[in-house]
Amino acid sequence: MSDKNIIIEKDEGIITVSLNRPDALNALNDALMDELLQAVDNYEKDDSLRCMILTGSEKAFAAGADIKQMQPKSYMDVYKEDFITRNWERVASCRKPIIAAVSGYALGGGCELAMMCDFILASDTAKFGQPEINLGVSPGAGGSQRLTRFIGKSKSMDMCLTGRMMDANEAERSGLVSQVFPSESFLDDVKKVALSVAEKSMVATMMTKEMVNRSYETTLSEGIRFERRLFHSMFATEDKKEGMSAFIDKRKAEFKDK
Ligand code: DAK
């Protein structure tokens, strides 16, 4: 598939996917989301790739779903075709790690896409928002649910009802973003974080992702039971033996993802 709406680079086991519709501030249309879906499928299958960075440009991660694509559609259109549902949750369902690297605008579907990643790193220029209310609609790709889980009801209501933007520092204070880096060194800083994720055992990484994600879906006691089952199962892996032996031998572990 052509990947004209995204740019893919691979280096040191890291795949960087850059959203690439600069004239539309990376507005997310169906073609772009199809390409992203394909990129995630390929990443998941390729054992040489150990972490994905999803990013945009300096000016925009993504300014939302493509308003020009949505504008002519009626209720019957979007209901019958299940409008852009098909290719939107693939990032959230990826079993391998995906880091969102946000510079500039992450608005509407752009903010929702960033929240589908495992965690968000922000440049000090980042601006997050759910401004759909200004268009006479609401968040539609999980924003009302994920943003509330990230930052709590009061701030989520504030963001969704006023449509205002949140800067990187407020986003970090509120728990939306895990770390903020200076814009001058942003992608280098993100790459260091990605390399640190990539050097771990992929088995442990995937299971840890499952556990953390399960915490959004279940009760505390069921979540802890789930964690315990996966934790015990890791004692069957070669990587557990290697990791613990390496610690005792005072050497760096060499994981084999087995
Ligand atoms: N869609 C289409 N084009 C966009 C766009 C967008 N979201 N955002 C910007 N652009 C285009 C502009 O129209 C302009 O194009 P030309 O006029 O040059 O042809 C170009 O990008 C540059 O934008 P501006 O001239 O506006 O640039 P400024 O620096 O002045 O302003 C801005 C930047 C980000 C503040 C402004 O562009 C803006 O407010 N953009 C709209 C932000 C927004 O409302 N986003 C929410 C969209 S609704 C779903 C999945 C997703 C969604 C819903 C359902 N399902 C799975 C069911 C998501 C919905 C949304 O995201």
Question: What labels would you give this structure?
Answer:
binds 4-(N,N-dimethylamino)cinnamoyl-COA, alpha/beta, globular, 16% strand, 6-stranded mixed sheet, 258 residues, 10 strands, 45% helix, 4-stranded mixed sheet
Fold and architecture overview:
- About 45% of the residues lie in helices and about 15% in strands.
- The protein is α/β, with parallel strands linked by helices and about 260 residues long.
- The model has no long low-confidence stretch (mean pLDDT about 95).
- The longest helix has 16 residues, at about 30-45.
- It has a six-stranded mixed beta sheet, with helices on both faces. It has a four-stranded mixed beta sheet with strand order 4-6-8-9.
- The chain has helices at about 30-45, 65-70, 75-80, 90-95, 110-115, 145-150, 155-160, 170-175, 185-200, 200-215, 220-235, 240-250, and strands spanning about 5-10, 15-20, 50-55, 60, 100, 105, 120-125, 125-130, 165, 180.
- The protein is globular.
- Bound molecules: 4-(N,N-dimethylamino)cinnamoyl-COA (DAK).
- 4-(N,N-dimethylamino)cinnamoyl-COA (DAK) binds near residues 68, 105, 108, 109 and 141.
